Amino acid sequence: MKVSPSILTCDFAYVAKEFQFVEDTGADMIHVDVMDSVFVPNMSFGPPVLACMRKVTDMFLDVHLMMQYPDRMIPAFIKAGADLLNIHLECSSPIDETLDTIRNAGVKTGLTIKPATPAEAAFPYLDKLDLVLVMTVEPGFGGQKFMADMMPKVAALRAEIDRRGLKTKVEVDGGINAETAPVAAAAGADIAVVGSALFNAADPKALVAAIQKL
Ligand code: DX5
Ligand code: ZN
Asked: Is 100 annotated as catalytic?
């Protein structure tokens, strides 16, 4: 599995230091959680802050847009330096058009489904996706409990991707730690977002290495 640490739990006054910490753990990329206070009952930051982050790291930026109208901000997030832009299937922007805008700019595409959304709802978009993200908590906050009942959705997406011979990756986000990552890996997930478990780990490097071995 690849590890994408969520920097939602980091100290944003010291973001360069926190990014260095993530890099030193040996993680594969960085998961950046954008929240607009409409799609989820929480708020984080937008393109100007992402542009600051871009200046202090060369790591791949996996940007998770928890936004009601992501299409309005896609050009700004592209300009800010996102490597992958991930929108929610439940948002109010046109999904196909928004994914096309992302892809035509040479940025990787992602689509996320919330816990109540069935895996099959993402099937029509798989051909144009680099990544599909199965939320394993209700989006909005770090530090919540992993929903193991999302694993059949991970398995269904994995099976459909393999059946069609696609290269789309399956990512899981929410409550991933040393105990739950193996459960997600067994269901067929390729990338684990790890937030609070990594920032609170006694040995962050060992946690990343253990998940990468799965
Ligand atoms: C939740 C975010 C997650 C979250 C992960 O809305 O999308 O990325 O912060 O944090 P943990 O690993 O603490 O659940
Ligand atoms: Zn996220």
From this structure: no
